[in-house]
Write a structure and sequence with these properties.
single chain; alpha+beta; Phosphatase 2c, domain 1; 2 domains; six-stranded antiparallel beta sheet; 10 helices
Amino acid sequence: MPGTFDVGADTGRVNHDCGTPLCHRSIGTQLLVAVNTVCILLASILLTVDYQHEVSRRIRQKHIALTEEAVALHAAVRGVQHHGLEAIQQYVDGVCERMETTHSPGHHIVVQFGDYVLQATSHHQASDELFESMQSAAAATDGRSQFGEQELLASTMRDDNLQIFISEFIDVDRREARSDALVRLGGLVVVSAVAALMVNLVLMRLVVRPVRRLVAIVEQVGEGKFNTQASEFRNRELSVLSTAINRMRDSLSADEQRRRRSADKARSIQRRLLPDREALPGCDVVAVYLPAEDVAGDFYDFHVLEDGSWLVCVADVTGHGVPAAMSAALLKAFLLDAAERFRDPVQIVERVNHRFEATALPGDFATLLLVHYSPESGCMSIVNAGHEPALLQRFDGSIEEISSTGFPVGIVIDSEWSAQTLTMNPLDRLLITTDGVTETADGDRSLFGRSRLNDILAATRQNKLQSVLTNLQEQLDTFRGEGPQLDDVTMLLLQFQTDVSCRQTDVRTAETLV
């Protein structure tokens, strides 16, 4: 209806990549991601635990080695102590000097002999702070203490007045454990990759591919392709699902066949409601009728009266499809009833409005354009009840719009309308359309519009009637492009054949436009 509907309503397919409700990943992707994430998580935990265990193992071994070294050094110092403190110092320095700092970083020896403290000087590490850290480590149950930014491991051997302290930094053990862990990680990655590949292949074969096949079949059924059938699967769950899909397909196919038969019958009934004549007394007429669905809310009708005059009506009920078609059938019945009672088009519209307002659902209404023409007098009276303006093309090519003269029918029971009365000349043409023409939208949701309609009518002034509507229909299809037809389209084109001057018979309702 004019100005009441959004021609940009979305009628396209749901986007499976990004749809709505939110862009969901496939079950195959989710399953593979979940399995691989669990594998990676377990591998990470395993590597972390293994790394911590390896570090602890290396530190325990080093602590045992330091203890054994302290015991051996204690015995050796006892052997040289009778040579004096200088001999002990030289011996300790010699032992430290033979230790490689690369493999034994921080290796340090301290000999406490009574009140004397001798520290190895070979690696220039001797200091009171280092000795204090070694004492703290030796006293600790795990043999560790902190020296600056490094962790120190120390062991001791004490006998009477002689105590030996030996220490090393354990950072190198952590680095070596980390290096070994990385090597194992590489091997684990290779093994995990092979295992993950095998698991993924199994999942693809047993779950992902069958689910994708079922999804493809469901999509085809959703598109109305009922000749596809889901096959049996090797596992019980998917086989049950496959059987259920096939039952659903059969049920939907049967429903679709019943719906199609009903739609075909409804379309045939509605077609029978349309006039089968292509000419009226004193006038030639052609029509184009294009429902947006199986049946339409648009309708048009011709009715020849006993005095030789005739009525032409074009109406457009709100919406389209079956509900609108039922309302259109009611409207036609009310129009025929009113035409048998009255000759005045205003009275006819008032009668139709009274009946339609009492019968239609709340909120339903219809626009209507009623033409009464007398070939004998050449007078044409038009009542436009909220309908699209009719275009009157005079024989000289000029175009006039015949706009609304009142509300649509079915809104207010006591609405009033007026008629516009005109004199028709030979070759004058009258184009009546529904809003499905001017509100046809292109891909950018721009409307076809009345201006474009006027231009086409002017450009085809010399064409035959059928050629004019054929050209207009092609222009609409081109403008719409690949988009769907969102509303019913009805077009009537009349060409008059009389030149008798108009004799007004009802001055109360006549409004002359010329």
